[in-house]
Amino acid sequence: MSSNITGTDTRPAQSEDHDAAPADAERDSTARRLLDSSEQLSYDPAQEVDWETPLDTDFHGASPEWSTLYGTSYWDELTPAQQRELTRQEAASVASTGIWFEMILQQMMLRDFYAKDPTDPAFQWALTEIADECRHSIMFARGAAKLGAPAYRPKRSVVELGRVFKTLAGGEAAYAAILVAEEVLDVMQRDWMRDQRVVPFVRTINNIHVVEESRHMKFAREETKERLKSAGWLRRQINAVVVAGSAYFIVTSMVNDEVYANAGLDPVRAKREAKANQQHKSMLRSSCSGLMEFLHSAGLLTKPATWFYKRASLL
Question: Model-level pTM?
Answer without folding.
Answer: 0.90
